[in-house]
Amino acid sequence: MNNMQETAETLALQCLAWLAGNEELLPVFMGATGATEEDLRKGAADPVFLGSVLDFVMMDDRWVVEFCAGQGIPNDSLMRARAALPGGEQVNWT
Q: If we measure between CA atoms, which residue out of 30, 72, 24, 37 comes closest to residue 53?
């Protein structure tokens, strides 16, 4: 695993912790994904699951801004982290 992926996984874990502590948003995530509490625990070690956490949070700019402000990081950090995780590469069809 390269350093970029490790950094991305760390940020995604922070995002998962933020999501787990958000009483309004966590049920939305769990309902949308069908994830259980056990899935959250197991998923914390799975880069693909962590990518899905970032995908979910990036669905709403307000969630991105809220998370990034709380972490003191730039708003594009989630997008950059997502690109470093499996399934996050940009597809160019031309």
A: 30
* Diameter of the chain measured on Cα atoms: 42
Nearest in space to 86 (alpha carbons), one of 44, 52, 47: 47
Residue reference for tokens 């950090």? 77
Can you read off the two tokens belonging to residue 69? 């402000």
- Tell me the pLDDT tens digit for each residue of 5-26: 899 999 999 999 999 999 999 9
Name residues whose C-beta falls within 8 Å of residue 71's C-beta, 6 or more positions apart in sequence.
14, 18, 77
Return the amino acid letter for 15. C
DSSP reduced 3-state for 36: coil
pTM for the full predicted model = 0.89
> How many CB atoms sit inside 10 A of residue 14's CB?
17
**Spatial distance between the Cα atoms of 83 and 87, rounded to a whole number of angstroms:** 8
